[in-house]
Amino acid sequence: MTSVAELLVLQAEEIKSTAKSTAEIKHYSTLNNDCLDTTTGVYITIHGHFYQPPRENPDLDTIERQPTAAPFHDWNERIYYECYRPNAFARVLNDQGEVIDIVNNYEYLSFNIGPTLISWLEDYDLEVYQRILEADKKSCVRLNGHGNAIAQVYNHIILPLANERDKYTQIRWGKADFRSRFGREPEGMWLAETAVDYLTLEALVAEDIRFIILAPSQAQRCRPIPSEHTSEHTSEHNTNSPWQEVGGAQIDPTRPYRCFLKNGKFIDIFFYDGPISRDMGFNDLLSSTEHFAKRLGQAVRGDHRSAQLIAVATDGETFGHHKTGTEKCIAYAFTHEFPERNWTVTNFAHYLSFNPPTWEVVLKPVTAWSCSHGVDRWQDDCGCGGDGKWHQRWRRPLRNALDWLRDELIQVYQDTGSQFFHDPWLARDEYI
Ligand SMILES: [Zn+2]
Ligand SMILES: [Zn+2]
């Protein structure tokens, strides 16, 4: 196994060899100057959801050694060396395997980094942390003020299972953490496990979140927005646009959708391309840039629509950790393969800014990307996340116990908190 020290030496060597070929870098960077005055054609968005839970021992406020992560101290550190840092300094190689460019992938990825991970990164390697913030700024400049970073529900909580007050606090904390780092308001929010229901949508809209990203299997039906819907939501029987049933994940993911709520408000939703996203995470789609681009190309609709978005989403750790070295694949794609095909690398907020939804969608009542039984994966013996060798009947009593504890603590916090705060719940919302 390679030690940490050896890895650092390797990185330093490669960066040195890069410095020799600055002429080549100049040549390639000219290829990269997309003209974003146009709003037509094929757009590509690759979203990475980067997340680690808080691994710190709460007594020591430090992470203890995790032997399974050897030769690294713990899993955060291991994934940092395999993914978080390599994506900030991704190497572009020529046919001889020589480094000809170093690319900050965060400049081209649409991404969210969970607050419990980005705070660790800030402490662990300020350089990579700064590189991520800088990438968001550069993407804002390149994409008309719409940065690549989106917020995340703070503690990766399954929002449909949270009570109303906790939903709001999680969204507010996610936004506050985002603002403090990126210095702007988030336009979109990543939902943990893309878990969603209509009460969650109402909370997101009330907190000024403009869009979310879901799996295609979460949509129930869609149709072109009838003209009287564009200004105000009206009841179904006033319109004659037929609904298309897409409950089997058939929704066309190349356009955004508007989801109207009972209160007349709405949120916009992107559905990522399911099969391509799955093959990025679980097959060898990222083994070569050409292979990857060909597959994306097959998703392009040949029906002369003026603009379309090919969007994929997966765990950010796919790029380098789950799939070793694949940060190089996407770096080459962003800077060479996609521009050569005249595809524009963008993010959801930017695409939405010139391509607002002309279709509306109705979601299934309660869903998530990693469970086909609503959100039972986090409360019942549904079978998801196991291999069939053991049961998950412990989930229900565990969930009940945690919910009971939460409800008991509400009273304790309210009573005790009132002795110290005018409004204990406002104090909690502003704690971050
Ligand atoms: Zn996650
Ligand atoms: Zn399930």
Polypeptide structure, described:
With 432 residues, the protein is of the alpha/beta class. The chain folds into two domains: 4-374, Glycoside hydrolase/deacetylase (TIM Barrel, Alpha-Beta Barrel); 395-429. Helix content is 38%, strand content 16%. The chain contains 13 helices and 16 strands. The strands form five sheets. It has a six-stranded mixed β-sheet, with helices on one face. Helix 4 packs across helix 5, helix 6 crosses helix 7 (198-206) and helix 9 crosses helix 10. The protein is globular, with a radius of gyration of 23 Å. 41% of the residues are buried. Residues 15-35 have low confidence and may be disordered. The structure holds zinc ion (2 copies). One zinc ion (ZN) binds at residues 49, 51, 156, 192.
What would you say about this model in short?
The protein has 432 residues and is an alpha/beta fold. The chain has helices spanning 4-20, 22-31, 75-88, 115-124, 126-142, 164-182, 198-206, 274-282, 289-298, 326-340, 348-354, 395-417, 424-429; strands at residues 41-50, 90-93, 99-103, 110-113, 151-152, 189-190, 196-197, 211-214, 219-224, 244-245, 257-260, 266-271, 307-315, 344-345, 359-363, 366-367.
